[in-house]
Amino acid sequence: MRSIWKGSIGFGLVSIPVKLFSAVQTSSLDFDMLDSRDHSRIRYQRINEHTHKEVPFDKIVKGYKLDDEYIVVDEHDFEDAAPEKSKIITIESFVNVDEVNPMFYETSYYTEPDTKNNKAYGLLLQALVKSKKAGLARFVLRSTESLCIVHPVKNLLVVTRIRFAQEIRDADDLNIADDMTISKKELDMGLALIDQYAEKFDVSKFKDEYNDSLLNIIKAKSKGKRATVKKLKPHKTTGTDLYDQLMESLKTKKGA
Asked: Is the pTM of this model over 0.90?
């Protein structure tokens, strides 16, 4: 793996030099845009809206529109906006991970210390495991300030970028009742159904079946065949009463 960021984790007065490596990868198939007439690839060009000519990549700059005028911003401006944060993941507090709403999570990065036996790295890792806490920190990645959680995963520290509060949309406009009347027997049946489906979290049980099926179709088409596609048969309940549907769900699970 190639590192995407190099800096340090600031833990009080302790500085831990680390590199960041992307911990996630996409599982979706990579498609190219083609001309349907001859299957030639479609190429995209960066065109100057006035000259209608292609602009070389090294001539492209970033600009922010302010009062109908573009202000050009360069790398020094991004660094000057937060110079002390540009190379430091600054832990500002320690929190319980289960208090972080999953809506805030974005993506994760593995951290690697500058030396294999970095004692400060090991200390922070073991302290987080022992305290069952995670560090809440800020850092700058690709000219953008990010909020993140520093947490232990097995024998290493993982930095998981999270959203700022203002990035979560308000849900007040949604048409949802403030209080729904649920009977005790319906609630008890719902809890029983949850308990029956409850199991230890194991994400390895789940595969990207859609992309596997799509790839099988593509392979079949390459041989001039048509892949066999399983049709989904939706399960129909016999009644419309919520309690009856819950009861039937319990029986269906037991039968499975």
From this structure: no
